[in-house]
Amino acid sequence: MRLLYSDNRTSVTEFILLGFVNIKQGKIFLFILFFTVYTICIFGNSLIITVALLSQSLHTPMYFFLGNLSFLDICYLSVTVPKMLTDLGAQSPSISFMACATQLYFLVALVGTEGFLLASMALDRYFAICHPLVYARLMNKRTCPQLAAISWTCGFLNATLHATLTFRLSFCRSNEISHFFCDIPPLLSISCSDTSVNEAALFTVGIFVGLSPFFFTLFSYAFILHAILSNRQKGQHRKAISTCASHLTVVILFYVSGIFTYFRPITSYSLERDQLVGVLYNILTPTLNPLIYSLRNKEVKLAVVRLVGRR
Fold first, then answer.
1. Cβ atoms 7, 90 nearer than 8 A
2. Which residue has the higher pLDDT, 146 or 30?
3. What's the domain count of the chain?
4. Across-strand partners of 16?
5. Domain span at 273
6. What are the start-end ranges of the E strands in the chain?
7. What is the DSSP letter of 16?
8. For position 70, which CATH number holds?
């Protein structure tokens, strides 16, 4: 049974995920694509974590945050992609109420945490480029774990709030979710309860969790760009611009898709459009992180060569 009736109210015991229902052909191709992307993400991010832990030369604040980001990205994709692969082979893909709540909780927690981690990485680059003489004193072995802990704590507190507000609602209109996975906007769109508090929470808390780290990151890079352009050594220009451009590429991809998803009226939700955006921030960004940040980095490549040589 999908719906239980009591006291003239309907309680949902499971949801139907409509993301792949209308796709009649090409499911095998999508399965291979998502499985390949998931495998690349797991391998790439696991390699970064391993190399950062075992290579003494990478025991720096930058790679400490990259290790956190890589671990987060593994968890991020693992929350949704395995279920998506299963649903591609199901005629009527469903998810239980509790599994949906769990998926949404960890998805929102990891999205929030990534925003703060990206801001922490921007702060690290700001001190490294704009204030190199005090960099080692400011970004030390105490400061970096504190920034990481704050990032993870804020992400999970944010998820606790939104998951609680979302699953206190009644779902009596429908149990069909127009998405690949459980997320806040599609759930609010099928609720028969008043969702004004939820929408207000998405906007107000989102300013702190989403927009604040985003603008902090942009301002950090504005100062970084000014410092780079003020530096007369052109060789250092290219290296610094390359590093910052890579970081900023991921930041823009992540924030633009995230802001589009959570900072707009629930009534404007669209299955086709939001599926594409969901793929951007939920699959593409975590997969690009190891490629953009580390696997094209000479320091990481040298560390991999040394570790392989030791074996």
1. no
2. 146
3. 1
4. 94, 176
5. 13-310
6. 3-6, 9-12, 14-17, 94-96, 176-177
7. E
8. 1.20.1070.10
Task: Check if the beta carbon of residue 173 is closer than 8 Å to that of residue 192.
Answer: yes
Report the C-alpha dihedral over residues 152, 154, 160, 163, rounded to 10 degrees: -90
In angstroms, how far is CA 174 from the centroid of its own chain?
A: 28
The CA–CA distances, whole Å, from 92 to 7, 100, 177, 184 equal: 29, 16, 12, 21
Q: Assess if residue 124 is contained within a domain.
A: yes
CA distance 199 to 267: 11
CA dist., res. 90 & res. 18, Å (int): 11
Q: Could you tell me the two tokens for 103?
A: 């998926």
Buried/exposed 165-178: b ≥16 CB within 10 Å, e otherwise? bbbebebbebbebb
CA angle 224, 210, 147 (to 5 degrees): 60
Report which of 75, 158, 80 is spatially closest to residue 115, judged by C-alpha positions: 158
Task: Confirm whether 2 is domain-assigned.
Answer: no
Domain contains 8:
no
The reported pLDDT for the residue numbered 1 is 40
Q: How would you classify the pairing of strands 14-17 and 176-177?
A: parallel
Q: Which residues pair with 9 in a beta bridge?
A: 6
pTM of the model: 0.86
Nearest CA among 132, 128, 294, 126 for reference residue 225: 126
Is 7 a member of any domain?
no
153-169 confidence digits (pLDDT tens): 999 999 999 999 999 88
In order, the DSSP letters of 188-226 are HHT--S--HHHHHHHHHHHIIIIIHHHHHHHHHHHHHHH
Q: Could you give the 3-state DSSP secondary structure of residue 60?
A: coil
Q: For 177, which DSSP code?
A: E
Average pLDDT, the chain: 82
Task: Select the more confidently predicted residue: 257 or 99.
Answer: 99
**Nearest C-alpha neighbor of 151 from the set 130, 183, 121, 106:** 121
